[in-house]
From TrEMBL:
Residues that span the membrane, as ranges: none
PANTHER family listed in its UniProt record: DNA METHYLASE (MODIFICATION METHYLASE) (METHYLTRANSFERASE)-RELATED, DNA METHYLTRANSFERASE YEEA-RELATED
A biological-process GO annotation: DNA restriction-modification system
Signal peptide from the UniProt entry: none
One MF annotation (Gene Ontology) recorded for this entry: N-methyltransferase activity
Protein name stated in the entry: Methyltransferase domain-containing protein
Record InterPro entries: DNA_methylase_A-5, DNA_methylase_N6_adenine_CS, N4_N6_ade-DNA_methylase, SAM-dependent_MTases_sf
Pfam families per the UniProt record, alphabetical: N6_Mtase
Domain DNA methylase adenine-specific span(s) in chain numbering: 9-235
Keywords carried by this UniProt record: Methyltransferase, Restriction system, S-adenosyl-L-methionine, Transferase
PROSITE patterns the record matches: N6_MTASE
Amino acid sequence: MAKSLEKWQFGDFQTPEELAKRATKLLREKHKIFPDLIIEPTCGKGAFLRASLSEFKYSKIVGFDISEKYVEEAKSSLSKYLNSGNATVCAEDFFSMDWNAFLADFSGYILVIGNPPWVTSSDLSILNSNNLPSKSNFQSRRGMEAITGSGNFDISEWMLLQHAQWLTKREGTIALLCKYSVARKVIKQVRKKLGNRFSAFIYLIDAKAFFGASVAACFFVLSTNGDDSSDCKVYNDLKSPHMLHVISERDGLILKDTAKYEKWKHLSGQDLRYTWRSGIKHDCSKVMELEQVENGLFLNGMGQKYFLEKEYLYPLLKSSDIGNSRTNSYRKLVLVTQKSVGDDTSIIKNLAPNTWQYLLEHDELLKRRKSSIYKNKPRYSIFGVGEYSFKKWKIAVSGLYKKLNFCIIKPIDNRAVMLDDTVNFLSFEAEEEANFILSLITSKASLEFLDSMIFWDEKRPITIDILKRLSLKAVAKELGLLERYLQLAEVLRANSSG
Ligand SMILES: C[S@@+](CC[C@H](N)C(=O)[O-])C[C@H]1O[C@@H](n2cnc3c(N)ncnc32)[C@H](O)[C@@H]1O
């Protein structure tokens, strides 16, 4: 197997000496940890074993790794330490090791330290690798899905949950380098299963500098010497840690910044008048998205040109347009085959025969759309469409971008602009109303409230679930604009009843 593939399947990013030293020192100096037993379950070449020998002179240390070569390398690197007799290193597969038997007779304070593999289960299935929890020592992949809430999980997440199991009836600390998102998932799982048994701390690290990896990562400390609270303190780094914010659960939500949330939580509440939506989903951009070549002539994603009616074509803006505030012009149009989900599409045949013919010609590609949402639906169905899609004015924010960049979307060529399914938006009949609501959403109060709940390292940080927690009515009240807000509501009601 090519070296890099092997490295990938074992999530093999060896910790630089300096980072292991800093992290271990922090445990002794700041967390006042004095372990009887230190376990490094995936010790690799042994950076954390060496750091532990230096910082914890009298602790017993055991290291394991699946790679015999690394185990040998680690072993020989320890011999120069005066207390090297305290350490043993063995080749073991984490997933087949009998950890219960190993820990059975031990009653002292345990420190689980290290840097577990940086790989996800879906990476491993692409690699056809078996480096996964087996069915025998873990109920099954299904079981993992039930625990992590996802079919794709980080191997380190599973390992961390195992470590937490070891400490359900023992005293100790788990202190590992992992993705920031993994640490948060583990906190959530541990709180759910074990309540507030552990106190939690996250020290952000610069993974690019230490590992050349573009991922938000941290040194994650879970300890039974706790303050019995569900808070997790987040620090900027390991060297001179400065507390950035406190992650916690409040009102059933996981919050990034508890203090900010407390300041603005009176802005939360469901807004019945304004409903956040996501844009159109069609899963076949080659066919459904077209560029206008000249009046009436359109080019699809396969380089084919067709004369199509304009009835079903709408300007399309995507996350990259919204994220970069490019909202005055469009590059592509999208075929919107329905006014609402489930509508009969056969009417297109009479209303726009060229468009129908075009769809028929690409029937095979459209039929091949994998998602089960298209099963047993009218042919050429789309999703994320409704009356709201055709309103001329919108406020949009990209779910993928790392910035709360709300944009006004105005009609182009007198047509409502459609958005793709990575964009979240509100829609309005009138420009004035859209502008007023934009002023509420972009107020400091709203932005701080939303930011207190957004984890920017997520793949899709800005979700409808978060946006809908903001009550625009409450924001209007906060800004002394409630009357204006209600006035608009009255106008709307008058219009809709008239
Ligand atoms: C991210 S590296 C870190 C190594 C070491 N902990 C350090 O801090 O430098 C992950 C290590 O996990 C080991 N590993 C991967 N899968 C394993 C398994 N199933 N059991 C034990 N070790 C494993 C790899 O060989 C690799 O050395």
